[in-house]
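Q: I have two molecules that I believe assemble together. Could you output structure tokens for the complex as a whole instead of separate predictions?
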Amino acid sequence: MSPRSRSRTRTGRAQPPVLFAALFAALGDTTRLVLVGRLSSGQPASIAQLTAGSRLTRQAISKHLRVLERAGLVRSVRAGRESRIALDPHAIEEMQKYLGAVSRQWDDALARLKAFVED
Amino acid sequence: MENRIEKQIELKAPVARVWRALIDYREFGEWFRVALEGPFVVGQVSRGRILHPGYEHIVWEALIEKMEPERLFSFTWPQIQHHDKERYSPDYSQAPRTLVEFRLEPAATGTILTLTESGFENVPSAWRADALRGNDGGWTQQMKNIENYVA
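A: Yes, here they are, computed for all two components at once.
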């Protein structure tokens, strides 16, 4: 297990292992949540587009996007000369799947406990 | 986004009965489907074998954290990465751990049990649905669930 190895390359990278901690930290910020929300339509956006309508500078937005990228939540895609940012739902889906599986197991175990003590 | 699991159920049994089902290792083993080696002791590791068909190769392991009579039973346990026999490894020293807490409260008709499992932020996302901990599938259990409720 190498939970901390991550890739920062922008092109053709394999999915790096993502710690859920990085996910929660990345999403625990209003600006980044807003950015994720704006990308959630699935349409990639340029940094300029993401900066427009925000009170933050382009640099500040870029910094937030890097946090999201390291957490595996967004990735850069090339569109001609420009790079655009796209949402990568993979990490969130993985976590939901995992928690869903654990949750179902608890439902089963607690149902057995219920049957056990009520008999 | 939630990083913990919380479940609450009402059990038609007195708190003392539910408490025993939680902290008596043989009773716990009955409903959790694990053959434990010995009693739970605070601060000590408890081990056993999972009894679910297909998961018998898996070592059950938990570090008992708290036993506050008829109120709180808690332990931490490792998240198991590979449940298939070929890739399974019983070395949990590097595995991320989550905290499991059972809280009991008396209710008019019995006991309210609140189960929480937290600490999932430590689990690498790549583990995903592979990390099944001895689940024998939803439907049979759901049917039993319904039977219990209508009984």
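A: One point stands out. Residues 90-118 of chain A form the longest helix (29 residues).
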